[in-house]
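Posted in: Structural Biology > Protein-Ligand Complexes

Title: Requesting predicted complex, adenosine-5'-diphosphate in pocket

I'd be grateful if someone could produce the C-alpha cells for the following input. Sequence and ligand are given below.
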Amino acid sequence: MAQVRLTDVAKVYDGKVRAVEDFSLTIDHGEFVVFVGPSGCGKSTTLRMIAGLEEITEGTIEIDGKVVNDVHPKNRDIAMVFQNYALYPHMSVFKNMAFGLTLRKLPREEIQQRVGEAAQMLGIDDLLHRKPKALSGGQRQRVALGRAIVREPKVFLFDEPLSNLDAKLRVTTRTEIKKLHQRLKTTTIYVTHDQEEAMTLGDRIVVMSAGRGVGRVEQVDTPLNVYRYPVNRFVGAFLGRTPMNFLPGRIERADSRLWFTRPGGLRLLMPEAYEEKLHPYVNQEVNLGFRPSALAEHPFPKYSEAGYTLPVHTVLIEPLGKNIDVSCRMQDGADILARIDARDDFPVNADITFYLDMDHVHVFEPGGFGINIIHADREAIAPAQPQHAAAGA
Ligand code: ADP
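-- Reply #1 --
Done. Output follows.
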C-alpha cells in the first residue's frame, strides 16, 4: 500500500496544449480513487504522469513521500492495466502473467506460486497454457489484471480497462475489480469516462472537465456527495444516469419570502433554509437544477404547500421496471423529465401536477460551470475516509 500525492501538477504538450492544470490531490493508503470526465479532460495524461510514461511539466508527484518526477517507470513500483490488454500474443497466459517476475529473476517456485494464486483469484487457472488469441475479451482482460497482481505493486493504475468489453461483461468485471480491491487493498487509481463505473468503484471520485480550454479538476468527494452536492452545473449534468433538469429563471422576493420564477408564470417557493445563501441573488438570473427522481406524484410532507408544485403536460412514458420515466412539457414550453414509481394507469397526454422534493433541488449561477449557490460551501468539507481505512486496516 502506498500514498500518492500530486501537488500543482500540470502538463503542457508541445509547449501549447494545456492538457492538465493545477492538479492537487492526496490519494491515501489503500484508497480506490477514480478520475472521471468527458474525453479530452486530461484523465489519461494525469495517470500516465503518475506511471512515469509522460513527463510532468509543472508540480510534483510523490509516492510514499518520495518525489518521483525523475524516477524511471519501472522503479516506481506501479502496475498499469490498459484498455487494450497489451498481452504478448506469442506467449501463453502463464508466461504473460509471469513475464515481469521472470525479468526480475524471482525464483521459479515463487513465480509459480504467485501466478497460481492470481489465476485462481481471477478464475483463469484452467487457461494458463492458452495463447491470448484463444481467449475471449473478458478472459484477456483478466490475464492483464493477473499480470498486474502478481507483481504485488504499491499502486495499481487502470486506464479505461473495461472499455473493450460488452455491456454485461463490463458490469461483472467491474464487480470483480471491486472485490479484488477489497481483498488486496492496494492503492488504486482508475480512469474512466463512464460515470456509472466511477460511482460504483470509487471510494472517492475526481470529476474533471475540459470545458474551459484546459483539463482541470472540478470536484473531489465520495460518489454520493458528488451526486447529491455537485459544486457546479457541469458536475450536476455529468453525473447521474438520466440528465438533470435545468430551468433558467430568477430569484425574486415576494410576501417576505424568496421565490424562483419564470416568465411563463412558474413560481416555486424557496425553503427558508436556503434564503441566506440565495439572498445576494435576488433579482438575478439563476438556473434551477433537479434530478428526475426529485419529482413525485404526491406531496413531500415537508414541502406540501402550493409553492412546491409543478404543473405539467405528460408527453411520453418509458417503463423501466420499478420506475417510469415521464417526459413532460411545462406550461411555459420547457421540457423536463420525471422518474416516478411505476404504475400501469399513469396518464399520458394529460395535465397533471408533480411535487418537487426541495431537499434535492440546486440553484446554480448562470453558465455551464455556474457554481451551486445552495451547496457551494460543501467544497470545504473534507473527504470521507474510505471504509477499510476507517475500520483500521
Ligand atoms: P482523457 O484521458 O481525459 O480523454 P487525455 O489525457 O488523453 O484526455 O488528453 C488531454 C488533452 O491532451 C487532449 O486535448 C488531448 O488531445 C491532448 N493530448 C493527449 N496526448 C497528447 C500528445 N501526446 N500530444 C499532444 N496532445 C495530447
